[in-house]
Design brief:
Elements lengths: L1 H19 L4 H28 L2 H24 L5 H25 L9 H30 L2 H20 L13 H14 L1 H17 L1 H12 L4 H26 L4 H20 L4 H29 L5 H8 L1 H19 L2 H22 L1 H4 L15
Helix pairs in contact: 1-5, 1-6, 1-9, 2-4, 2-7, 2-13, 2-14, 3-4, 3-6, 4-13, 5-6, 5-10, 5-12, 8-14, 8-15, 9-10, 9-14, 9-15, 10-12, 11-12, 11-15, 14-15
Length: 391
């Protein structure tokens, strides 16, 4: 439910900035920075908090606050007093609480499933995320066109409230840590754990690069809708097709994960992804753009599901919150990448913004394939490595 809320709100804010406020690409970029910077900062400490406090109670708090923020922006738009600075401030608060919510959810999720079912659970989680991305933007696009932009923010508030009630209904035992050390010491231990492991450090850095350089199109999507002469419902269709591709990719990933070439599929999927993003950027018409974004969605899922499964399966439980707090920074880097993309689009245009970023990501994937043997040779059976004991 919260993922659906995120999608409709992203659609609504982007359309509000470009269509209603008639702002430029750089404004989209600054909006991305307003979301990302507080999210990245709190992500680090969110992981430490997840290892020290009741994760369920934290998620109840973050869901409630996000619902309130969405209701506030809906009221501002409805009354006609919303301004750009309102969006920036509310986006920054949402980034802060979402940054806390991310690592907590990422470390809470494995508590609900057994390790033998983890691979299937990660794939199922990805499917439900992308199903919400199909339903939410399509409804959101129609809602904006026929009921006004404020309607998607009210829907976002309802989505977060629904998530709040679901979390309240869950009953997961909370085992308080036996020892309570200083927050900075716990954070340092998490960083040291990643630094000691070439596997974790290289895979997490690769995820950072993929999200920062590869996902800028999400924030810049309203510009492409305008380029193809679309209304808000047409923008929603682009998100629908993107998510349909992601679900397709998630459906084929389990077979790829079980092969002896899981690492090659992961890196190769991200590399091929860059060509489809470039194809989308320079698509001569709407139909070709939809085909390219569908294929990009497939390749994105191949990378995301394999990499996330590899991290979740090989991560010791006593480091889970701290490491996942650092890993989930990758998702905060998506809107921050939009700052780079928005400013490039301001100088050239949105097509070159995506193409330049995709070229950088493709180069990173080539270097990774050549230099990181442990990632390149990752096999499906290695995703099932037994849980380590540790610190």
């Amino acid at each position: 439910m919260s993922s659906g809320a995120i999608q409709v709100v992203q659609l609504g804010i982007g359309w509000l900035i470009i269509s209603d406020f008639e702002e430029s690409a750089s404004t989209l970029g600054f909006l991305g920075a307003a979301i990302a910077i507080p999210s990245i900062i709190v992500n680090l400490f969110g992981g430490v908090i997840a290892d020290r406090m009741d994760r369920r109670l934290i998620m109840i708090m973050t869901s409630g606050v996000n619902a309130a923020l969405m209701a506030l922006i809906a009221l501002l738009v409805t009354t006609g007093i919303a301004e750009i600075w309102h969006l920036m401030v509310i986006a920054a608060f949402q980034g802060f609480f979402s940054g806390l919510d991310g690592p907590v959810k990422a470390s809470f999720f494995p508590l609900l499933v057994s390790r033998k079912n983890m691979m299937s659970a990660v794939a199922l989680s990805s499917v439900t995320w992308h199903i919400s991305r199909i339903i939410s933007p399509s409804i959101g696009g129609l809602a904006i066109r026929y009921m006004g932009t404020e309607s998607v923010f009210f829907a976002g508030a309802i989505g977060w409230l629904t998530m709040l009630f679901i979390i309240i209904s869950l009953r997961v035992p909370y085992n308080k840590p036996e020892t309570q050390r200083k927050v900075l010491q716990d954070l340092a231990d998490g960083v040291k754990f990643i630094a000691r492991s070439r596997f974790f450090s290289s895979l997490i850095l690769l995820s950072f690069a993929k999200m920062f350089f590869g996902m800028q199109y999400l924030l810049l999507m309203p510009l492409f809708a305008v380029r193809h002469g679309l209304e808000a419902d047409g923008l929603g269709v682009i998100f629908v097709v993107l998510s349909a591709g992601a679900i397709t990719g998630t459906a084929i990933v389990p077979k790829l994960q079980k092969s002896n070439h899981a690492g090659k599929f992961m890196i190769g999927g991200a590399f091929i992804f860059t060509f489809f993003v470039t194809g989308f950027a320079f698509a001569p018409n709407y139909g070709v753009a939809l085909l390219m974004i569908f294929c990009a969605g497939i390749m994105h899922s191949v990378f995301l599901v394999i990499s996330m499964t590899a991290i979740q399966m090989r991560l010791p439980s006593n480091y889970r919150g701290r490491v996942m707090g650092i890993y989930t920074i990758s998702f905060a880097l998506m809107p921050l990448g939009g700052l780079m993309g928005g400013n490039i689009a301001e100088v050239f245009d949105e097509r070159w913004a995506l193409t330049i970023s995709a070229g950088i990501l493709a180069l990173i994937m080539v270097v990774t394939f050549v230099t990181q043997r442990e990632l390149r040779t990752l096999r499906g059976d290695q995703l099932m490595a037994p849980e380590e004991s540790g610190a």
